[in-house]
Specification:
By secondary structure, the chain is mainly α. It has 17 helices and no strands.
């Protein structure tokens, strides 16, 4: 199927010209931003891995993974809530409640993120005599990332809810990694500051995140409807809290599931193995590139079709998206499986060649992920947060148990097996839930007939 015919078929799902235009523009823009983000992220990984070596890169990756894990309770499930609510409030022109939502979620995120940052800093200080010196100094800088990441997620979600899909992704996905690369080269080749350590790399990431956050905030102020800023805020805090609790559980368990392997490798194995595994997992994540891009684009439209009770159109959108995701993901999976070892050696260095087998296992898991389509996104955008929470809780606990069982014996290979098993479990559980409760099959190629109520 050609790209043109695919776009034509997707556009045929929609009779509304403006809606069709937004979906196609948002999809193309999201693919471009995600592609640029993937290139920049790989560039950052290559530069950091070569400058720091496997051990130093492992310290840097472990500190980053720890902060990203803490960023989830700091966000408290609010980005997904903001995305849904902003899209709905904008459609109904409920400007007072929209302003109240942005104010209250920002207040909550600030309070929680600063509290967690203080707690994390205090904990590391209390145990600093037992921890690696370089990790401690790296973590001090990483703590400053916590409020920036949490608030940045809220701001990006608000922009996407306003149908500014590209603007909602640019600061975090393009500006931050691009600036990090520029600052790294400036420190090494212009300022000639040495040595370059994991802590100095983290400091540069904090500076990059701060600049990206400032740019993103200015984008939100530019794109937000002027009526929002001119209207006194109206708060529906209790209703927002009821929706945020299951979403927070989903986000927390998802981050536990995605970061448990890296953190447990840091606790149970050496920094060298953490660095190698980080390279392997980041390379395998390229297979999920189109899934991530599609999820970002179709989320508001899933919510819209469901609100209109147009399940036929929703099924067609999900199916076409899943097929497009699979068609675009398979070539990358094949390239990594066939040439993965050469790619690792040429890109990151011979020390990272041992990451090929874990990478291959993760690639297979990501391929299943692509085949199953936007299962998690479908649950979150149709009010089935509890199903999503159940699925990710089962997955996270299974993944944690497998990591604890396999990592001490098999190292990075065990972490890869546990993560791949988690991917499959997550997708199967949510696929079953979507069929049962929504009557929607998310698979690119449905394997079972769907029984529909007449």
């Amino acid at each position: 199927m050609t790209r043109l015919s695919l776009c034509q078929r997707i556009s045929g799902l929609l009779s509304d010209t403006r809606l069709r235009s937004r979906l196609l523009r948002g999809g193309a823009g999201s693919v471009f931003v995600k592609g640029l983000h993937s290139v920049l992220e790989i560039g950052v990984a290559v530069v950091m891995a070569r400058l720091l070596g496997p051990a130093g890169f492992g310290v840097y990756a472990l500190a980053t993974a720890t902060i990203r894990l803490l960023a989830i309770p700091a966000q408290a499930g609010l980005p997904i809530l903001v995305l849904k609510e902003v899209a709905a409030l904008r459609a109904t022109e409920n400007w007072a409640t929209l302003r109240g939502l942005l104010v209250r979620t920002s207040q909550g995120t600030l309070l929680i993120s600063f509290s967690l940052a203080a707690l994390a800093a205090t904990t590391v200080w209390a145990y600093s005599h037992r921890l690696d010196t370089e990790f401690v100094s790296t973590f001090w800088w990483a703590v400053a990332l916590l409020p920036l990441l949490a608030l940045g997620s809220i701001r990006g979600a608000a922009l996407r809810g306003l149908h500014r899909i590209v603007a909602g992704q640019l600061p975090e996905f393009v500006i931050r990694p691009a600036l990090l690369l520029l600052l790294t080269f400036a420190q090494l080749y212009i300022l000639s500051l040495a040595p370059f350590t994991a802590s100095s790399a983290m400091l540069l990431q904090v500076v990059s995140a701060a600049v990206a956050f400032a740019v993103g905030t200015s984008m939100l102020l530019r794109h937000i409807p002027p009526q929002v800023l001119q209207t006194p805020p109206h708060f529906e805090t209790k209703r927002w809290l009821r929706s945020a609790v299951p979403l927070s559980l989903v986000a927390g368990m998802y981050m536990l599931y995605t970061q448990a392997d890296l953190i447990l490798l840091g606790l149970l194995r050496s920094p060298h193995e953490v660095g190698v595994y980080r390279v392997a997992s980041q390379s395998a994540s390229l297979v999920a590139f189109f899934l991530t891009a599609a999820n970002t684009t179709i989320a508001p439209f899933i919510s819209q079709f469901y609100a209109l009770h147009d399940m036929e159109k929703l099924q067609r959108l999900v199916t076409m998206s899943a097929r497009a995701i699979l068609a675009c993901s398979l070539p990358m999976a094949i390239i990594l499986l066939v040439f993965g070892k050469k790619i690792l050696v040429l890109t990151f260095g011979a020390e990272f060649a041992t990451g090929y087998l874990p990478m291959a296992i993760l690639v297979l898991g990501q391929t299943v992920n692509a085949f199953m389509g936007p299962v998690g996104n479908l649950q979150n955008m149709t009010g089935r947060e509890r199903d999503s929470a159940m699925g990710i809780t089962i997955t996270a606990l299974l993944n944690l148990a497998l990591n604890l069982l396999l990592i001490p014996r098999f190292g990075i290979l065990g972490g890869a097996i546990a993560s791949a098993a988690g991917m499959v479990t997550w997708n199967v559980v949510l696929w079953i839930a979507a069929r049962k409760h929504l009557g929607i099959d998310c698979m690119a190629i449905p394997l079972l007939p769907m029984k529909r109520n007449v």
